[in-house]
């Protein structure tokens, strides 16, 4: 898929990985709707983007992915403003073992909710143009992160949901490819405060930092470039792409048939 003129929605777009995704999409001539609960960061980013790309290329909407009403309104506003939706990046996420129900609500339920609303606008069965959905998972969606069992569960769920939806899209004729990004530890605010968000597993903070030293960290720009690969390569569907520092690798899953 060439991105020129395509319309993308990015959740959790104001900072970190979402910000890098937004900037990458705009550099590649897409139009982007930024969704985030952080209005200050979102408006500040929009101001900078408008100076660089003009006022007709991006739109910021305050939106909580936990709210069906807010997310549905955001999709509708996107369709009204730009004439449809071609790309969805389900990127909003948190890591907080102390508030595990909210972690599940944002990371997993938010991804499912966003995907199902996207189908209403993107599926060829409902008059859409088709397109691509990319869900931000994690290496914790491929293997366990012992200090974050709930975060691990949500990201495993995202990977599983992605793969099942990709197969369902092919079988049903949605015309939508669905893939997952699985980055290693990324240099973001989420990671910088990880020790304070481990809840009852705070005693495992040192073990987590040792794992970081072993596996290494990557940057938001490397994650955004990996997103570009999943968007533009038409052969990629149902994939989980692991993103390491200066290296990418697709996960090979066992076949059930």
Strand percentage:
15-25%
Terminal CA distance reads: 30 Å
Count of distinct strands: 10
Name the helicity range.
40-55%
Low-confidence stretches: none
Query: Could you say which overall geometry the principal axes of the C-alpha atoms support?
Result: globular
- Class based on secondary structure composition and strand pairing: alpha/beta
Widest β-sheet, arrangement of strands: 3-2-1-4-5-6-9-10
Give helix and strand order, one letter per element, not per position. EHEHEHEHEHEEHHEHEE
Nearest-angstrom radius of gyration? 17 Å
Question: What average pLDDT do the residues reach?
Answer: 96
Total count of helical runs of at least 4 residues: 8
Query: Main beta sheet, described?
Result: 8 strands, mixed
Give a brief outline of the structure.
The chain has eight helices and ten strands. The protein is α/β, with parallel strands linked by helices and 257 residues long.
Question: Characteristics of this structure?
Answer:
two-stranded parallel sheet; 46% helix; 8 helices; eight-stranded mixed β-sheet; single chain
Outline the structure in words.
The chain is an alpha/beta fold and 257 residues long. 46% of the residues lie in helices and 18% in strands. The protein has 8 helices and 10 strands. The strands form 2 sheets. It has an 8-stranded mixed β-sheet, sandwiched between helices. Strands 7-8 form a two-stranded parallel sheet. Strand 1, helix 1 and strand 2 (31-36) form a beta-alpha-beta unit. It starts with 6 loop residues before the first strand and ends in a 7-residue tail after the last strand.
